[in-house]
Amino acid sequence: METDAFRRRKFTLAACCGVHGVQDGLSAALYVILPTLAEVFGLSYAQVGVIRAVKNSAMALFELPSGMLSERLGERSLLVFGLLCAGCGYLALAVSPGIVAISLSLFLAGFGAAFQHALSSSIISNTFQGAGSRTALGTYNSAGDIGKLAFTAFYSLAIGAGIAWQGVVTGFGLTAVLGAAALFLILRRLQVGSRPSADANAQSTGGSTGWGIRDRRGFTALVVIVFLDIAVQSGFLTFLAFLMLEKQVPAGIAAFAVVLTLAGGIFGKFGCGFLAERIGVRSSLIIVEVLTAAGIVGVLVSPTLIAYFLLPVLGIVLQGSSSITYATVSDLVRADRRSRGFAAIYTIAGAASSAGPIMFGIIGDVFGLTPAMLCMAIVVLLPLPLSTLLHSPLSGQYTE
């Protein structure tokens, strides 16, 4: 029985990691697709930011409803539905004739992406207990970065090999559609994420109300920190390829800059989570954000070759910070409301992903891309005083 339970947990985690890899891979692919779209359709930096924001806004808008809806319908069907919608969005993107069609296609993809993070995080935190939950969530977060790396690297290599961007995007869409079918079969066989029974729903609504937040002050501080942190992440990754183009780097190699940064993020998700457990969230957050600001400035002022060597290191801290913040949701929110808690944080992150590219894109159009990047280095330091508002549950003293 113990072996069967272990295998069930293992395959459940693998399934959640798979959908995370595809969904995050699709989202990250935009970082390298956008320069192509800008060239083909003659887009400004602000328009690039708006297009990126359309997808992120759709994800932010429906992230919270997806978490609440899963309390009634279960996570399985919603995860499959979301992956299917994301795939259809990219299939539509491949045949889009202009900016309006592009925006509508990405809105559909963003809508589908909303049915993922909170649902998978809830499944994992409920399947794994105690310290195993944090380790499993760290593995899940890293799977997303592996997907980001795979999709962006494939696109960069394909474009460099002369394959039309429409063909690559079509392949991405088909991958998601086929993945949705496989996900449904796997989760149904594992009997994971099914619709809650009527008794379970009645017990949930009758015995627990509200959001289940155990530390409102800490949760509020966490929300603000996540917003600022993700705004910089999204803004930097959106305009990184454009920065390299300004350094007179060929388009294919410019897109590879994003790949290098995402590669560092894979190690950052593991390393920064471990760092937080060793020295506490406050100390680790200060270290990571200061290094992120220094890394952004370093990439700006360094010669091209040195900048490329710095990017994986920057990626470690730029993206690793999310392992410090996201994993604490299960410590601040009761188990019966974790879907809502994760959905709330991911909604904030989605809003930041929308606001960041728009804000920094406007700064780039008005003042230039270098001042926009310098603004990112300043904004990423704003969470430092906010970290003093975090209470002991975020300082390495985790409770169940």
Structure description:
- The chain has 400 residues and is an all-alpha fold.
- It has one domain: MFS general substrate transporter like domains (Growth Hormone, Chain: A, Up-down Bundle), CATH 1.20.1250.
- The chain is 83% helix and 0% strand.
- The protein has helices spanning 2-41, 45-73, 75-93, 99-113, 117-127, 131-160, 165-190, 198-207, 216-246, 251-279, 281-301, 304-325, 329-332, 338-367, 369-379, 383-386.
- α9 runs parallel beside α14 (338-367).
- The longest helix is centred in the N-terminal third of the chain and has 40 residues, at 2-41.
- The protein is globular.
- The two termini are 25 Å apart.
- Residues 392-400 have low confidence and may be disordered.
Write the layout of secondary structure elements.
Blueprint: H1 2-41, H2 45-73, H3 75-93, H4 99-113, H5 117-127, H6 131-160, H7 165-190, H8 198-207, H9 216-246, H10 251-279, H11 281-301, H12 304-325, H13 329-332, H14 338-367, H15 369-379, H16 383-386
Helix pairs in contact: 1-2, 1-3, 1-4, 1-5, 1-6, 1-7, 1-9, 2-3, 2-4, 2-14, 3-4, 3-5, 3-7, 5-6, 5-14, 6-7, 6-10, 9-10, 9-12, 9-14, 9-15, 10-11, 10-12, 11-12, 11-15, 14-15
Measured distance between first and last alpha carbons: 25 Å
Largest sheet: none
Task: Spell out the CATH superfamily.
Answer: MFS general substrate transporter like domains
The share of residues in extended strands comes to under 5%
**Overall body shape:** globular
CATH topology: Growth Hormone, Chain: A
**CATH architecture descriptor:** Up-down Bundle
> Compute the gyration radius: what is it?
20 Å
Output the number of helix runs.
16
**What is the count of structural domains?**
1
The total count of strands amounts to 0
Strand pairing plus helix content: what structural class? mainly alpha
Overall mean confidence score, pLDDT: 84
CATH class: Mainly Alpha
The topology string of helices and strands comes to HHHHHHHHHHHHHHHH
Low-confidence parts, pLDDT < 50 over ≥5 residues? 392-400
- Specify the helix fraction band: over 70%
